[in-house]
Amino acid sequence: MYQSPTISYHGHHSPMGAHSSFTLGRLGASCGMATEKGAAADSSVYIGYRSASGVMHSFPFYKEMENEAERFTQSDEDVVATNHIFAEDEIERTYGWATDQFEAPGIRFSIYTPFESIPDPASATQEELAFASCPGTVIELCVENDSDEEWELFFAHHGTTPWMPMEGRHGLKGASTQGRMGFASVDPDVEEFIDFSVDKALGRTHTNTTFLLAPVAGLSARVAPGTTRVVRIAVGYYLGGTVTFNYPTAYWYNRYFNELDEVLSYTLKQAERSISIAKQRDAELASSGLNADQQFLLAHATRSYYGSTQWLDNGDPVWVVNEGEYLMINTLDLTVDMLFFELRYNPWTVRNVLEHFVERYAYYDEIFSPDAPDQMREGGLSFTHDMGVGNTFSPEKYSCYECGGIDRECFSYMTCEQLTNWVLCAGVYWVETQDDAFIATHKDILLACLQSLLNRDHPDAAQRNGLMGFDSSRTDGGGEITTYDSLDHSLGQARNNIYLAGKCWASYLALDHMLTSLSEPDAAAEALAGARRCVDSLTAAFDPTLGYLPAVLEEGNESAIIPAVEALIYPYKMGLMEAVSSTGPYGAYIEMLKKHLAYVLRPGVCLYDDGAWKLSNSADNSWASKICLNQFVVRHILQVDYEGSEKADPAHVRWQVYGSADHACSDQFSAGIPIGSLYYPRIVTAILWLEEQPVGQHQAEGRHEASEEVKMV
Question: What's residue 490's pLDDT?
Fold first, then answer.
């Protein structure tokens, strides 16, 4: 397992679909269990052992906190000065894809967060669904006592709400708080306690071992001299009943578990299976061929993805990925980036989200030219930026994020980009799953998407150039933006933006691919013509004087951006290899992009001095998720190398473990310092790196014929 430059950084440790996390790893920082929270818990975790002579040895997974008993007493008793908190150089941390392990003198602490394909509820067994949805995590605490005196190991958690002891229910010892989260063991030799501190609890300063007024609950076990003891613990979460508003849903796990005690008991019974799966994932990543820095970034990203997921139930499954610290529900411009990870492990979740957008969050608008803002023309179909925020679903046809009256700034509409996002998700999903029924069911949607995309170029077919030129009426006279919402005009403005133009090109190709299979030759031909217009316009816009393609094709813009190449990922993932080849029908476009990269991938342009990537030369603001995606396009699809490329991955690791140490995996950085998008799921774009083999290997090859089911529909 990989050892990063520092061990002091938070990592998510989360079950799949429970939107809960045992976040821990940053030394001297708040940590612990939390549910439905877009940040690390404001708690502390105490792990270590106490010698018979009273010396405490513990990991520093807490802030310096006064003993809360002092709030109730006026004791002048001195704090024990012999307690030993392990220093960073005494701790070894190994960080696998699904195992996070800390080791210090005499103690080893392991957290297992297994993940695998989430079974499709339409076809899976009840046992498969129960195991996959169980909101519990397995922990192992191993103490090796090589001394000549007895030790007592401990695991404890500080809480802000009262703890209740398990007291042997279901054979469990441990504690829970308000039935929402807790921890337990079935080891018959462990003791449970609730006290003002671990030291007081193990010192047996009173006879009440479950002192409910106190904020620290824990487990302890004695370790005889010369022996080793392993204690297995489950941490778990449970929210019963309706948990969302304006669209009532419960957690899917409610179907199999009635209370937290059942979750903890089941987690412990399934511990061997969970640990085995975790070790399989660790071994898979270790043998992947990725370098050590890439392995770390993918492992770190995977943890933050699962920490943001909710597997909900309204009679049918409802899949949600929350937008990290912002808690926005199924943000569509994240869905299109997390697509590659989800298709690898659980494709049904992609279809679930796409159909939810169709059913509740699709809308029709009008459009206008910035030269004639009062003259409305037919727009067409698009989709909202998101489905709501903080467990509250937005009213149908509206997001929580987008506002009218804002001109090309954060919180404006992303109408055109969200249109392309839905189309691209649909196209890649269809090719990778060969779910012909999906595109057959949504044929009318696909036709409407095509017409909408054409209209947003220009309502007059004779004046189209393939780029978005008209803004949505929903902006109320403002201007649309892209997912790069907090950047300057180089990536923030949607109109005539080359990043978005690339996605329009890819969307036309996807529509051609799907509509051809749906026996819609005229519409498919129109889509293909749109793709040609787009690449011809972009290729012609290359500025040989500048040496690159300007980011926005208007108003004398001279910004240089890396994501000019981003959209190549979509035809590549749809198996349209000729579309991304220098010898294919768009070869001139591909060659132009290579020349563009040769200019921008230089220090002082789109590289920092340490080798980290800067997505735009005119804004000190980058997204780690987009860097991962564009690295794959540059290295694997375009097969472009540049001087100093070996510096990028170590630099991006430093962003996470130093810059984002308090926030687990983060996305938005300024010169290595996180400035937003903390605790974020989107960085799983790094899953693409596993495919960095000869171009085309393991990819879909060409078009596949529509099934009889499609033809019947």
Answer: 59
pLDDT of residue 325: 97
Task: Please state, as a whole number, how many other Cβ atoms lie within 10 Å of the Cβ of residue 626.
Answer: 24
CB environment 13-47: b (16+ within 10 A), e (fewer): bbbbbbbbbbbbbbbebbbbbbbbbbbbbebbbbb
Domain 20-70+81-284, CATH among 2.40.160, 2.70.98, 2.60.40, 3.40.50: 2.70.98
Average pLDDT over residues 327-344: 98
Residue whose token pair is 């699962």 = 306
- What tokens does 553 get? 């094709």
Domain spans of the chain, in order of start: 20-70+81-284, 321-712
Q: Please give the single-letter amino acid code of residue 75.
A: S
- What is the CATH architecture of 321-712? Alpha/alpha barrel (1.50)
**Per-residue pLDDT, 81:** 46
Instruction: Name residues whose C-beta falls within 8 Å of residue 549's C-beta, 6 or more positions apart in sequence.
Output: 498, 538, 541, 542, 543, 564, 592, 593, 596
Do 595 and 587 meet the contact criterion of CB atoms below 8 Å apart?
no
Q: Measured between alpha carbons, how far is 46 from 24 in angstroms, rounded to an integer?
A: 11
What single DSSP character describes residue 410? T
DSSP assignment string, 281-323: HHHHHHTS---HHHHHHHHHHHHHHHHTEEEEESSSEEEEEB-
Q: How many other C-beta atoms are found inside a 10 Å radius of the C-beta of residue 462?
A: 5
Residue whose C-alpha is closest to residue 215's, from 270, 136, 159, 292: 159
Encode pLDDT of 164-181 as tens digits: 999 889 899 999 999 999
pLDDT in tens, 255-289: 999 999 999 999 999 999 999 999 999 999 999 99
The one-letter amino acid code at 431 reads V
Q: Using an 8 Å Cβ cutoff, are 504 and 467 in contact?
A: yes
From CA 704, how far away is CA 336, in angstroms rounded?
A: 23
Write the pLDDT tens digit of every residue in 493-536. 899 999 999 999 999 999 999 999 999 999 999 999 999 999 99
Least Cα distance to 31 among 154, 158, 155 occurs for: 158
Q: How far apart are CA 55 and CA 76, in angstroms?
A: 20
The pLDDT of residue 74 is above 50: no
Tokens of 149: 């005196």
Length of the chain: 713
pLDDT digits (tens, 9 = 90+) for 340-360: 999 999 999 999 999 999 999
Give the single-character DSSP code of 530.
H
Q: What is the pLDDT of residues 548-571, one digit of tens each?
A: 999 999 878 899 999 999 999 999
Pick left, alpha or beta for residue 299 (phi over 0 → left; psi -120 to 50 → alpha; otherwise beta): alpha
Residue range 233-249: mean pLDDT, rounded: 98
